[in-house]
Design goal:
Length: 562
């Protein structure tokens, strides 16, 4: 994606508009100016023509029209619980831009809900989902979403100013169009500028008081890991009358479990590539040895049944109760629960420690922010107002929008204090003590994260405090860029995409079976059968595809650094 090229195209469009347009339509989807242009009347020489509002790469397009409009916004995350318009920040943004939002969140299985929406062909105005979701390509192939660059060319050239050219290029498809824009994304140049400040979200955690009570054991080896889980279970059998859960993980889904794939592989510092070739980390001996360690943990009664069936809401409740001893998890996903524990007893919080490691005890290589981001947002072909939609997206991408969403309204949630824009003391106190209450009252600090740019908002972010600071500090020195390994999996209805989806489902079924095997011999049988099946079903073909994408990514990233 070449920003200059799109700027030239948009300026050509502007010149054409000035030459031929003397009045502006006030209709919905084709409203270029967003305001009526009242022509002078021949019978009234005193009548004055209202000039057409000009589109400009230098001026935010949302300012052209701030009349009330409500967009439906689908979030493919069943755990998202916040509502737009309840808090001070979203109310301020609606008052400022005229845009109100109606969030649509799946009540149960995200894939089922999203597939139903796609099958109906009737998608909400905006769609936000995980960057690696295969449904993105399905929506593009089905022409269910609109090219953001074309919307920007026609309705808001400021989009190219507010957006990062490297990220637009990264998400450019073979047809030359960009359909999705990421949040929490960092390009190679971002790493060059901010890299020494980056921290990872991936952590190995233990409950502080329990860990110290059993002697702060070394949990880096399989033997030390199992012994620590056993000691915690023996010494702390129950927590407030409920059974202790020795080890917590992300929820199991139909395609597997994050904790037992990339997270633990990063803790083990297993390389993603060797000598320019992608490395199948799932077959690494260190990884297999730790899966067998977890199998042994289950045999020893150290993996609760809850771990296999709980979804995020149940996990959040148990984290807030302090029922897990150890966890392989994401630190940001438990902020509200940590606040609860810290308020009750600062020693009952979770802290990051060195956990599962490879035989050489190499430092973990945790994923830092990548250019693909965390989630991406798309605009539906059914969007009720194309102009207002792309202009609102531009606003959210911009520094102005990021500041509004992060700090909220000046005088309400923040002010200029000691020469710096920052949260008011009472607001910061609530943020650090009760995240859920903060979200509902103020709605700032990434409550609405769909287009957050963490490189921009870092300038207003308060210094980390406990119980969060310790976790962040633990990841420093372990955080690396892994952008070249992102978005390698084939998606959509391509031959490789269909194979990859089948393989993912197979893994999702196999992983729990491996952990629940009654012996290492049974584990080996299940493992070997799985490897044979994936070979038969086309894993080599998928790997060839991924190698090609990896090499493309490496070239792209090299270009961005020039």
């Amino acid at each position: 994606m070449n920003k200059k090229r799109y700027f030239k195209r948009s300026m050509f469009l502007l010149v054409a508009l000035v030459m031929v347009v003397t009045t502006a339509c006030s209709s919905g989807n084709n409203n270029n100016a967003g305001a009526n242009n009242k022509a002078a009347s021949n019978s009234d020489p005193a009548a004055v023509e209202t000039p057409v509002a000009e589109l400009s790469a230098d001026k935010p397009g949302w300012q052209i029209d701030t009349s009330p409009i409500t967009f439906d916004w689908y979030l493919n995350f069943s755990w998202f619980a916040n509502k737009w318009g309840v808090d001070a920040t979203s109310q301020y943004i609606t008052k400022k831009t005229g845009v109100d939002l109606n969030f649509i969140v799946p009540a149960g299985n995200e894939n089922e809900k999203l597939n139903t929406l796609i099958a109906s062909g009737d998608l909400p105005d905006f769609i936000t989902l995980d960057k690696g979701e295969g449904s993105i390509q399905k929506m593009i192939d089905g022409e269910l979403v609109l090219p953001l660059n074309e919307l920007a060319d026609e309705y808001d050239p400021y989009f190219f100013t507010a957006s990062d050219a490297a990220k637009l290029s990264w998400y450019t498809k073979d047809d030359g169009n960009v359909y999705a824009y990421p949040n929490a994304s960092s390009s190679p140049k971002d790493y060059a500028e901010y890299g020494d400040t980056y921290v990872s979200n991936q952590v190995f955690l233990v409950r502080k008081d329990m860990y110290e009570a059993i002697g702060s054991p070394d949990m880096r080896t399989p033997e030390g890991f199992l012994k620590a889980l056993q000691s915690a279970k023996e010494q702390f059998g129950t927590v407030n009358g409920q059974p202790l859960i020795p080890l917590g993980l992300h929820e199991f889904g139909e395609n597997g479990n994050y904790s037992l794939e990339g997270y633990i592989q990063n803790l083990l510092a297993i390389p993603k590539a060797k000598d320019g070739q992608l490395y199948d980390r799932s077959t690494d001996p260190e990884y297999i040895a730790w899966l067998k360690t977890l199998r042994q943990a289950n045999q020893d009664g150290l993996l609760s049944k809850d771990v296999f069936i709980d979804k995020r809401p149940q996990m959040e409740e148990k984290i807030a109760q302090g029922r897990y001893f150890a966890m392989i998890y994401q630190r940001s996903d438990m902020a509200a629960q940590l606040n609860t524990l810290y308020a009750n007893d600062p020693n009952s919080v979770y802290i990051a420690v060195d956990g599962p490691s490879n035989a050489n005890m190499d430092t973990a290589t945790l994923d830092g922010p990548g250019i693909s981001g965390w989630t991406v947002t798309l605009i539906s072909k059914n969007v009720k107002d194309k102009a207002r939609a792309i202009r609102f997206l531009s606003y959210l991408n911009s520094e102005e929008g990021n500041k509004d969403l992060f700090l909220g309204e000046k005088g309400v949630s923040y002010d200029t204090i000691d020469g710096k824009d920052q949260f008011l003391p009472e607001v910061l106190e609530l943020l650090n003590s009760d995240r859920s209450a903060f979200d509902k009252k103020y709605g700032a600090s990434h409550t609405f994260w769909m287009l957050m740019n963490t490189n921009i908002t870092a300038q207003w972010a308060p210094q980390a405090v406990e119980p969060f600071k310790q976790m962040e500090d633990w990841t420093k020195g372990k955080t690396v860029s892994a952008s070249e390994f992102e978005l390698l999996d084939p998606t959509g209805n391509s031959e490789e995409g269909i194979i990859a989806s089948k393989l993912a489902l197979q893994w999702g079924k196999t992983l729990p079976q491996l952990l629940m095997a009654e012996s290492d011999a049974e584990f080996d049988t299940i493992w070997n059968e799985f490897q044979e099946k994936r070979k038969k079903d086309g894993v080599d073909q998928v790997n060839v595809f991924k190698q090609g994408k990896y090499e493309e990514n490496v070239k792209k990233l090299e270009e961005f650094l020039k």
